[in-house]
Amino acid sequence: MLLKKLSIIAALMLGSLSVPMAVGATEIVIDDPAIEAALANKSRSAKNVARDPLRKPATILALTGVKKGDTVVDLFSGGGYYTELFSHIVGDEGHVVAHGTYAKKEMVEGLGNASLVLSNELEGVDAGVDVIFTAMNYHDLMNASPDGRDAILAAWFSKLNSGGVLVVIDHNAADGEGDTVTNTTHRVEDAFVKAEVTTAGFEFVKSIDALRNPHDDHTKGPFDPSIRGKTDRFVLKFRKP
163 in the Ramachandran plot: left (φ > 0), alpha (ψ -120 to 50) or beta? Predict the structure, then answer.
């Protein structure tokens, strides 16, 4: 992992690593009744609905391409904000896995097409996944498993169908910081993530600016009251060839 990390950093500095970079990052056209219906679903918790303006879920869900019948893994799913939305979209023919040691039974109660995997590994997830999604957690991989990310990314890759999608959202670090501030400001640089994930075999598809905040100077952590919920967040989409 150390040698790979050094090679990624060096390549980024020299501009020699062939990682597609979005110029004027692509925006998403939202024209999906299933997404509109999921957001308007009366069973959504009031707490989650209140988070919509800052999280822009219609745009994020459109980026994933999730559809009826899909199998989705909501990695490190936290409070289940996206678990609930994915469940409404994939319907009875699909399945959603709420994943992570902090996932709670309450997150999937009432969702007949969702299940829990109470682990930070993917042993309990079958292959044949259409979408793997993780929001504000990739930087935690650096802290929890600094030398094991190759294996983690390989596991994600193995679970996805060919053509399956990986979407990563996280708090962006300043240019050049890479993964050096993951345990202090809990951020990671978007360019570093692009390089690391594509090195693992994924194809980079696009990035969008929906959650960007140019007023965030990248010096504060996401729990700082002045920036909480409004950090400069990157949104990256990858595909398994």
Answer: left
Residue 158's φ and ψ, nearest 5 degrees, are -70, -30
Report the DSSP beta bridge partners of residue 74: 98, 133
Q: Using the CB atoms, write b or e for 117-142: b if 16+ within 10 Å.
A: beebebeebeeebbbbbbbbbbbbbb
Q: pLDDT tens digits for 22-53?
A: 334 556 667 789 999 999 999 998 999 999 99
204 DSSP 8-state letter? E
CATH superfamily to which 2-239 belongs: Vaccinia Virus protein VP39 (3.40.50.150)
Q: If you ran DSSP here, which 8-state letter would residue 66 be given?
A: -
Banded pLDDT at 65 (limits 50, 70, 90)? very high
120: which 2 tokens? 């930070």
> Contact, 203 vs 188, CB < 8 A?
no
Asked if 105 contacts 116 with a C-beta cutoff of 8 angstroms, the reply is yes
Q: How far is CA 92 from CA 31, 51, 66, 114, in A?
A: 22, 26, 14, 10
Distance CA 124, CA 9 (A): 33
Distance of alpha carbon 10 from alpha carbon 15, whole angstroms:
8
pLDDT tens-digit map of 101-158: 676 677 788 899 999 888 777 878 899 999 999 999 999 887 776 667 889 999 999 9
